[in-house]
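go over this:
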Amino acid sequence: VQLVESGGGLVPPGGSLRLSCAASGFTFSDYAITWYRRAPGQEREPVATIGRLGNSNYADSVKGRFTISRDNAKNMLYLQMSALKSSDTAVYYCGVMGYWGQGTQVIVSS
């Protein structure tokens, strides 16, 4: 299993970012997959999960601001983040079956 996240960066409060996760080494369409994040000094926490058929659920802290999506034809997972807050600053990871990628850093700061 290989997961490679990208799309992080520095964004001002209220801004938007789109994270991507390229997956390989398993049958992507057969699995629910999750975006996690680890803020400085905190444990990794789930942010959003999308099922095989596109059903999704979100942490309360991101509901209405983040949207998870997937493209099974391309083995890609996405996280559209908007109305970003400083509390969204974290390293973001995609995860499946206990595997994670290396993460992509998101910093929300003016």
